[in-house]
Amino acid sequence: MEELTHYINGQRVKGGSGRFADVYNPATGEVQAKVPLATIEEVNEAVAKAAEAQVGWARTNPQRRARVMMAFGRLINENMDMLAEAVSREHGKTLPDGRGDVQRGLEVIEVCMGAPSLLKGEFTNDGGPGIDLYSMRQPLGVVAGITPFNFPAMIPLWKMGPAISAGNAMILKPSERCPSTSILLAELLKEAGLPDGVLQVVNGDKLAVDAILDNETVQAVGFVGSTPIAQYIYGRAASNGKRAQCFGGAKNHMIVMPDADMDKAADALVGSSMGAAGERCMAISVAVPVGEKTADALVERLVPRIEALKVGPYTAGDDVDYGPLITKASQERVKRLIDSGVEQGATLLTDGRDFSLQGYENGFFVGPTYFDNVTPDMDIYKEEIFGPVLSQVRTNSYEEALKLTMDNEYGNGTSIFTADGDTARDFANRVNVGMVGINFPIPVPLSYHTFGGWKKSAFGDLNQYGPDAFRFYTKTKTVTARWFSGIKEGGEFAFKAME
Ligand code: NAD
User: Where do the domains of the chain lie?
Assistant: First the structure.
């Protein structure tokens, strides 16, 4: 059995706690490795070393730091297949999706290659007689990233890129279910020229997370994961005086207007609800057709598309649409939620509960599941399922569909499919959701914009990546400087007479 490690001071370090978590092959249900779970002391030691390394790194000029990001970007490209395979091996997503996971993280590193221009300060000349004001962005010191299982490359890269290129050291605590990719990325960063200790990967569970939250040296926490944990981490980090941004779960609605291109809407719904087995915080999990005819047109198109989906292990290559869920517990939870949908009166159009694949009977697969006539009081509507389950809520008008979306407690992403620019603009202006797609099902903004949800999908201030990330990982210092006049005229040699 492979024993994974931490990555401390530029090398792989065995765990010393004697506690481990199982890392599964989700396609077979077998345990493929064990990952060490750090003690409080191991976390504190990693933080102390990071604090030492950060001093020199912060003094390294921004352009030199950016060159490390350039080399890192090149190395990620060169190792794309190896990284994608590492993602898929532990997560179970298809290889093309694994590559997408690495690619969307790499794009943030590409922005970090230009970090100096984002770290520039402001200047006011002659704010008063002989007075100039300037502000500078300085790194915070040691910061932490705590990341979820569902994007083992992308989200660690979203955290480490801006934090490190801004001159901080980072403690990265990846998900214990998919820990290997973070170590591989840390090794590539070292090869790219990052000094030892500036990125410490500490594996662990709640004990390690709490140690990070209670460590006085850690100045900021960037978290991504489920809403209850996001809220908990935000509260504990903030009460310990840390800067915190904690991104949580989602229930993303896609409104389909009667004038939409129904085939395109159906294609978008299948890909965005079932892709990655629905384990995406930007997955569309609720279809909201406006009008009975629109709903019927979607059913007619979606059922055959969903029934044609190919589910299997990533090792089957490009011939698979999505893979297994992450754990047995998640598979059982998703099946229970499907049961509840049936019990609570939704119409089950495709049923993924009995899905089985020869040779992979113990894998954590759930087949694609599509419910019609879902109502907001049902558990399948209220809960983030995080599985390949699409719920359709029928509405009678645009206003009703908009209200449904706005009344939902989550506000990560949403989308509208329509041929009418006026409706699209109205939707984008009024909806209380952080990321909006217009004829676009998964509106993850490009890396030079910024990513963040509203309502219970995010706690704290500022978004991930883009300019917001550089604001989050730096603090502003403003200097007011006065230089008295007279010196440049030189010394006076004549004896000054009284006037
Ligand atoms: P999770 O909340 O279970 O775990 C996230 C991280 O928190 C992990 O590193 C984990 O070790 C740690 N953690 C778990 N329980 C903890 C506890 N009790 N105390 C302290 N730390 C704890 O989330 P997950 O299952 O890994 O990821 C899926 C969730 O993440 C979904 O809800 C999804 O919507 C969300 N997500 C959100 C975004 C976003 O940007 N909004 C992006 C990706 C995923």
Answer: 2-248+457-479, 252-438
Distance between CA atoms of residues 497 and 499, nearest Å: 6
Is the model's pLDDT at 491 over the cut of 70? no
Atom of ligand 1 nearest to the CA of 174: 9
pLDDT for residue 489 is more than 90? no
User: Cβ(231) to ligand 1 under 6 A?
Assistant: no
Looking only at the bridges linking them, the beta strands covering 199-201 and 347-350 are unpaired
User: Which H or E run includes 280?
Assistant: none
> How many whole angstroms separate alpha carbon 456 and alpha carbon 436?
16
Beta-strand runs (E) in 37-160: 122-128, 131-139, 142-146
Q: What is the pLDDT of residue 499?
A: 62
Q: Give the pair of three-digit tokens for residue 248.
A: 């949580």
Q: Give the contacts of 173 (CB within 8 A, at least 6 positions apart).
A: 144, 145, 146, 147, 201, 202, 203, 204, 208, 209, 212
CATH class of 2-248+457-479: alpha beta
**Is 301 within 8 Å of 266 (Cβ atoms)?**
yes
| 413 within ligand 1 shell (Cβ under 6 A) | no
Which homologous superfamily is 252-438 in? Aldehyde Dehydrogenase; Chain A, domain 2 (3.40.309.10)
Type of residue numbered 44:
N
Going by the DSSP 8-state scheme, the letter that residue 201 receives in this structure is E
